[in-house]
Amino acid sequence: MFAGEKTEQATPKKRQESREKGQVAKSMDLPAAFILFFAFLSFYLFGGYMKDQLMDVFRSVFNDYLLLDLSIENVSSLFKQLVIQSLLLLTPILLITVVIAIFSNYLQIGFLMTGDPLKMKFNKINPIEGAKNIFSMRTVVDFMKSVLKMSIIGYVVYSTLWGEKSHLMDLARLPLENIFLFAGSVTFKLGIKIGLILIVLALFDYMYQKYEFEKNLRMSKQDIKDEYKKTEGDPLIKGKIREKQRRMAMQRMMQEVPKADVVITNPTHFAVALKYDSKNMQAPTVLAKGTDYIALKIKQIAKENSIVTMENKPLARALYAQVEIGEAIPADMFQAVAEVLAFVYKVKGKAN
């Protein structure tokens, strides 16, 4: 009844497949919050450098280029110089932004490169699915997050400006340089405060995204069984394959019995077929062995092919337990097997 309910944690294979498709737990707010915070922090760290570069731009424009003749060559040189100086001015912020963007994404999902999200998928333009996404619980949660962020940021801006109200009233009497300094100071404070608040909210959003991801990734017991069948194969089919392999191995073993020199029995429960060729073998080798029905079959084939059958309970048990098919007997059995083979060769000599 409950086999279809997704109550089980996702298997490693399901997680890997999801990751390869680009489906990972990720908050889009976290990189943006980190970039905002560190961008404003870079103004504090590189403020002196940026001020010097900005002064160089104005100095070169007013002292050098305004005195030049208006020509295509001079205008091109002016724009080229302005582009170079602007890049030098913005390089620290651009570098910090790129590094923080890469780091914040790596912090969430690690190293991941996949082109699956870029593939054309017609279900993405399905109006029914689009309507479901618009009126889904995720949309409601995203809307509530946006309202919460705007409310908190609005309160921070209001409280910060309210705390500076006495200075705001005095701006009309201050020189232009002091006004710029005050505006820059207030902007820097707001940027740092808002950045920190957004980072905290983004961390909560990341935990929520991770929870939603794990929830959507859950599997039912039937899903796990189906995945196991796809990965390992159907147990019934594997069992049939193993059974067929056993029958083939048994058939090959029975085909070797007529080549044996002797079959040592228990007499009823064990049977071991031995062969010794002094030219090609260093020691007698087990060609076949078995118990109960297989032992009976080995003795039957031996009888049909006039193979000597000899009863030796301890030796039969020891050979069956210690020596695998196709292996030579161990040294501690040489004496017992040699006596058996000597008897067999003696019987065959008399018969001949």
UniProtKB/TrEMBL annotation:
<comment type="function">
    <text>Required for formation of the rod structure in the basal body of the flagellar apparatus. Together with FliI and FliH, may constitute the export apparatus of flagellin.</text>
</comment>
<dbReference type="GO" id="GO:0005886">
    <property type="term" value="C:plasma membrane"/>
</dbReference>
<keyword id="KW-0812">Transmembrane</keyword>
<feature type="transmembrane region" description="Helical">
    <location>
        <begin position="30"/>
        <end position="50"/>
    </location>
</feature>
<keyword id="KW-0813">Transport</keyword>
<keyword id="KW-0966">Cell projection</keyword>
<keyword id="KW-0472">Membrane</keyword>
<dbReference type="GO" id="GO:0009306">
    <property type="term" value="P:protein secretion"/>
</dbReference>
<dbReference type="Pfam" id="PF01312">
    <property type="entry name" value="Bac_export_2"/>
</dbReference>
<comment type="similarity">
    <text>Belongs to the type III secretion exporter family.</text>
</comment>
<feature type="transmembrane region" description="Helical">
    <location>
        <begin position="135"/>
        <end position="158"/>
    </location>
</feature>
<keyword id="KW-1133">Transmembrane helix</keyword>
<keyword id="KW-0653">Protein transport</keyword>
<dbReference type="InterPro" id="IPR029025">
    <property type="entry name" value="T3SS_substrate_exporter_C"/>
</dbReference>
<dbReference type="GO" id="GO:0044780">
    <property type="term" value="P:bacterial-type flagellum assembly"/>
</dbReference>
<keyword id="KW-1006">Bacterial flagellum protein export</keyword>
<keyword id="KW-1003">Cell membrane</keyword>
<feature type="transmembrane region" description="Helical">
    <location>
        <begin position="87"/>
        <end position="114"/>
    </location>
</feature>
<keyword id="KW-1005">Bacterial flagellum biogenesis</keyword>
<feature type="region of interest" description="Disordered">
    <location>
        <begin position="1"/>
        <end position="22"/>
    </location>
</feature>
<keyword id="KW-0282">Flagellum</keyword>
<dbReference type="InterPro" id="IPR006136">
    <property type="entry name" value="FlhB"/>
</dbReference>
<dbReference type="InterPro" id="IPR006135">
    <property type="entry name" value="T3SS_substrate_exporter"/>
</dbReference>
<feature type="transmembrane region" description="Helical">
    <location>
        <begin position="178"/>
        <end position="208"/>
    </location>
</feature>
<protein>
    <recommendedName>
        <fullName>Flagellar biosynthetic protein FlhB</fullName>
    </recommendedName>
</protein>
<keyword id="KW-0969">Cilium</keyword>
